[in-house]
Amino acid sequence: MFVVSNRVYVAEGWTDTFEERFRRRAGEIDKQPGFVRMMVLQPAKEGAPYVVHTEWQDKAAFDQWVGSEDFKRSHANPMPKEAFSQSGGLEMHEVIVSAES
Asked: Among 66, 84, 62, 74, which Cα is nearest to 8's?
């Protein structure tokens, strides 16, 4: 499994807009081949980033989505720069151990 986490520092006053953008897009990414799960994690501590966490069957599935029309549509109208308090970061990992109850 391949995991991608995007850390996004949303500026004060923009959190509702940020969250609503994901709520409106819910159900689109899950139509992509190889998609497993997406979670948008709201920070529990002020000043911490949101984390947009996606899981894919493999890196090839993620790469295919990045090149897709769905990806282009979902990133075509970005929020303004002032919506972000600082730059975030994209992290990619291969799962080597996993546990669930």
From this structure: 84
